[in-house]
Write a structure and sequence with these properties.
The protein has about 200 residues and is of the alpha/beta class. The chain has six helices and seven strands; from the N terminus they run βαβββαββαβααα. It has a seven-stranded mixed β-sheet with strand order 2-3-4-1-5-7-6, sandwiched between helices. The protein is globular and about 45 Å long. The relative contact order is 0.18.
Length: about 200
Amino acid sequence: MSTQTKLIVGLGNPGSEYDNTRHNAGWWLLDRLSQQFNVTLSPESKFHGLTARARIHGGDVWLLQPMQYMNRSGAAIAALAHFYKIPPENIIVLHDELDLPIGSAKMKLGGSSGGHNGLKDTQAKLGTDKFWRLRIGIDHPRNSAIPLQPVADYVLKPPKQAERSEINQSIDKAQDAINEWLTGNTQKAIQNLHSK
């Protein structure tokens, strides 16, 4: 079991108009984790966001909600990671994923940003792609009732009630996977999350 300091980051956009939009799925999961860990996210200007520290399995776990727009969120992640000397492999970024169907979630270490601006900026600011990411499926607009809807419009709109319910179910599984990841059981976390 690892007791090294870890960092969990939820990606989203600040502002009440974005709270319930698909692009903020990472924040929804981070909020759930902060409740589970019984911590309150508070503003921390030097980390450009809201932070909280929890003691889990004998180690420090930082929760971070960058309060800059998605495409600039890497600065907050890099600031906290560098300050506490948290290596990239001890960071997990929670984010929405267009290329996964609603109701699914996947987890992996490293890889491309897939065009996700939050991941792109994180990779640039950390100088590596070797951090964990937990992808929460929101589906692609090409599969929706309005297939020609621009991606930017789609991700910045709230999901329908039935879709939000399915996303919440995937967040339940993702929450369990994060708990396994925190113990160092990364393979078990991946297997449980990816199983039907």
